[in-house]
Amino acid sequence: MRKPKYKRVVLKISGEALAGNQGFGIDQETLHSIAEQVKEVRELGVDVAVVVGGGNIWRGIKGSAVGMDRTTADYMGMLATVINALALQDALESKGVDTRVQTAIEMRQIAEPYIRRRAIRHLEKGRVVIFAAGTGNPYFSTDTAAALRAAEIEADVILMAKRVDGVYDSDPEVNPEATRLKDLNYIDVLNRGLGVMDATATSLCMDNNIPIIVFGLTCRGNILKAIMGEDIGTYVGREVNG
């Protein structure tokens, strides 16, 4: 059997992806599909950390757009990610996968506070670690949290699981003629304003040479394919995927 290409990964799951086709909240079928795929990957010996978004429940930037204080709106978004993290933890543990949720904002009754060394130790013991509450700071997205945590735990790659199956030259949900881009470097993403992750997160990945694979979550088995190094989605890195 082929060995995984990556030994330690950060899986970034957008809140929108968790909503599935219902558009809001948590779709149980999607949630359990993710849990089954993570279990499959974990059984190969891959260290898996997960960062979850909260856009299926609340997006801070939308709250600020209608007049809400941006800091308050962002903190609400962080709490939404905790809800998603607990739901994913429950789904994983129902399948026998040992997990820990760590939050950037302390809430000891339901999760551990984020401690880098403890997170790494959990991974070394075969546990899936779910990072919630973003970076704990307003004005920073969960994309930035994924890049930051990936650098801190020395992950080999960030897997960006989205509703769409890669990065396109325009919005594929609006333009049916949009073309999927197979390989990009960090500067391409920044200069062209492509929707991989925000500029802060992209710059952090570039500075720490952390590659990013953007792929669709709706096709079951894509997480495993990405970890095995198969040609799916869009690869973003210093060099093209080879």
Quick overview:
The model has no long low-confidence stretch (mean pLDDT 92). The two termini are 20 Å apart. The chain has 242 residues and is α/β, with parallel strands linked by helices.
Q: What key attributes describe this structure?
A:
38% helix; 242 residues; alpha/beta; globular; two-stranded antiparallel sheet; Carbamate kinase; nine-stranded mixed beta sheet; 9 helices
Structure commentary:
With 242 residues, the protein is α/β, with parallel strands linked by helices. The chain has a domain at 8-165 and 218-228: Acetylglutamate kinase-like (Carbamate kinase). It contains 9 helices and 11 strands. It has helices spanning 15-18, 28-42, 60-65, 70-93, 116-124, 142-152, 186-192, 199-208, 222-227, and strands spanning 8-13, 47-52, 99-103, 112-113, 128-132, 157-162, 167-168, 180-181, 183-184, 212-216, 234-236. A 9-stranded mixed beta sheet has the order 4-3-5-2-1-6-10-11-9, with helices on both faces. Helix 2 crosses helix 4 (70-93), helix 6 (142-152) packs parallel to helix 8 (199-208) and helix 7 (186-192) runs antiparallel to helix 8. The protein is globular and about 45 Å long.
